Amino acid sequence: KARQRLREFDVGDRFSRLPLPRAAVLLPLMVRGGRLHLLLTVRSLQLRRSPGEVCFPGGKREDTDRDDIDTALREAKEEVGLQPEKVEVISRLMPGIDKMNNLVTPVVGFIEETFQVTPNPDEVSKVFVVPLEYFVKPLNYKTFSYKTSSGYSTRIHCFIYHDQEHRKSFKIWGLTAHFAVFLALVIFGERPTFEVDYDLDNLFSSSENYFTNLYASIHERKKSNL
User: Which regions span the lipid bilayer (predicted)?
Assistant: First the structure.
């Protein structure tokens, strides 16, 4: 059922012509105890950009990457030792735009629960998993409004997840939380316990409108800068 829903929301490469630098992240899903879980990483404290923050495996596109799927799989291998052939890629969901104005495409794939993580300490300090359902029914959640550099107002989701395995709480927010929430909305098709920026009865078209408005606000700013 999850695979079918994800394929219905696959955007393919329809946004590949937009004139923004490209990046991609892998949203690795696994079944654990009969429930879907999402694998996340904590960025190394040695990194210059966003050290110690929770994110998905991923990064900027390189010239040798054929597409966003290639980028996401290459980065996942480099960061957590996930071999590309061990990922069942299902779809590419609606992209987002990060703080550096990179067009970030979320690539969704299934991995085995038995996957043994080997984090690259230069890039990743921890790896943990969260039940996907947490991103529609969280125990610890807050939201705040954010205005982009281009003046576009949007909603920032912030989750605090207490991981029993690591006996540690993780803060999941920003674009990472945005992708996790959208993934959970797509798969479960139910109303979350908090407000979102979408019409849940028309999730695909409203998510496309959300992205189009965000992109237009950034593009207008770039044109005015020129």
Answer: 172-189
